[in-house]
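Try it yourself: sequence plus iron/sulfur cluster, in.
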Amino acid sequence: MTDSLRPSMKLPEGRKKVLLHSCCAPCSGEVMEAMVASGIEFDIFFYNPNIHPVKEYEIRKQENIRFAEQHGIGFIDADYDMDNWFDRIKGLENEPERGERCTVCFDMRFERTALYAYEHGYDTITSSLGISRWKDMNQINGSGERAAARYEDLIYWTYNWRKHGGSQRMIEISKREQFYQQEYCGCVYSLRDTNRHRRAQGRERIKIGVKYYGREESLTDTGSST
Ligand code: SF4
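Structure, out:
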């Protein structure tokens, strides 16, 4: 573990308590351990109605709960209101990843995170989504800041979790914990598009629930976060 590279972090503007939107255990593992190491008070907010099918959703959530319990971190299990998600995404089904559909998806998840934070005494929200190299950090930060701006005295913390060895530790922790390794971003459209891409390469379709970090020789972040 490259702990020596992990910097001690401080919340911006003297903030006290974070609600961490988590998309999955592999992405949030390093974020959680970094905040624990810096003595930052936080809880996890799991709100990801984008994840399809429900079997995949449950695996990702249970992996995250397992890791939160290991560290004694509070875990808020929010709604799986996928009908609302599909309503919001309507018309954007064929957008590419990192396009407009993803902005709407992030907006929806962060709006709920911000509301919960505001109602329950958190002064800061942030997300594990940005640690994945598959994601556009500016797009995520924009959604996070828009959501936080709805409430007085709430901010979105735009810390770059990939830096100072964060990306490497994300893989190390995932392998150490043998986290489930998702192979697509999360929604039914990302599953469709990833399978199309695999078919074009002559590869097998994604099989849900079979791939775990550390049970093979992969050292790279081959999956993608939600
Ligand atoms: S590709 Fe990922 S971020 Fe984009 S809409 Fe689907 S689940 Fe959301």
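One thing you can check immediately is this: The beta strands are 17-21, 41-46, 74-77, 124-127, 155-156.
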